[in-house]
Amino acid sequence: MKPVVLALASNERYFPGLYCAVVSALTHLDGAREVNLKVLDGGISRASMDALSRLIDRLGRPARLEFVTVDPSVFGKATPGPGRSHMTYCRILLPHLLDVPRLIYLDCDTLVFRDLSELFDLELSPGKVLAAVPDSETLSLADDSRTIADAMNLLAEGAYFNCGVMLMNLDELRRQHFFQRSIEFLNSWSGKYRFWDQSAINFILNGQVHELAEYWNRASWRFDAQQNNDLYCVLHYTTSAPWLGGTWGPAQVLFERFAVDAALPVNLRSSDFKRSARRHFWRNALAPLRALAFSIASLWYQLIGKKDKSAAYEKVARYWIDYIRNAPRRRVLHRQRSQEINRMKFNLHASPLVS
Length: 355
What we know:
Layout: E1 4-10, H1 15-28, E2 35-41, H2 46-59, E3 63-69, H3 90-97, E4 102-106, E5 110-112, H4 116-120, E6 130-134, H5 141-151, E7 161-169, H6 170-175, H7 178-188, H8 196-204, E8 209-211, E9 218-219, H9 220-225, E10 234-236, H10 250-261, H11 271-303, H12 307-325, H13 327-342
Parallel strand pairs: 1-2, 1-4, 2-3, 6-8, 9-10
Antiparallel strand pairs: 4-7, 5-10, 6-7
């Protein structure tokens, strides 16, 4: 069997996520499979590199770890990503930097509870160059940028994919000069797209993406909406980094519980977590005002004949009304699920980071 090639990208700020993603992926992988782990390094400290190396040794898996230095300045004209960084664009660099036929890419804000060798061995449909899960919030190209879709003569309501988990055919992407085309796209349309390299992937590779089942990339908010703690999936923290405060709910509790067993517990007293607590308080406190304001705006636009805007504001108002109405039941369910999660034990075989 061919080694499973797994790629992630991180800097020092995102290292806790990278660490937990790697632990979860290797722990749930078929024990008979060798792993080639490629980490695109956008500024990881030597201490963190050593910690990851020691972890892999302690897990006792047949795994090769390689850190690949990246220079995101090539994306200097592109719209800056989270934290005003261009690290988010590293997915585009994969065909350019890594000389392998195919690989699985994982965002470092994921936890893996499935065997990734099943995904790595997947045969892509004819004409497809990568596999991904449809995005759970951005449902079409138009939701990213109707302007770009129209300019490229693409169906505005065409499918849109989340790129946090992908199986990528790098050979074919190189043949299509994907890296060069992506740079041109990002520089040409700077300020017009919403989701950085994910926008480039979706517009440039439109019609060439194999659709994966939702369990390969389950958004954390979908996990929070579940009635139980079923975990046979790849969980993706799409709204906020759980080691930097996160979003309150079962998915956040799960990450914190997992991080404890992975021997890299989250610092719950950090300034990031204090800011997160304040955001959660104001989200709940302002929910009634938001429901009222969006309802009034929807009525106003209806009265002046702007039906599209009225419908959009009505949709948002309905979200906040449902959020308020379901709050008591949601709190009870989340409390029950959180208690269950806190009793979980993850057999990760991960010793403390300090030798």
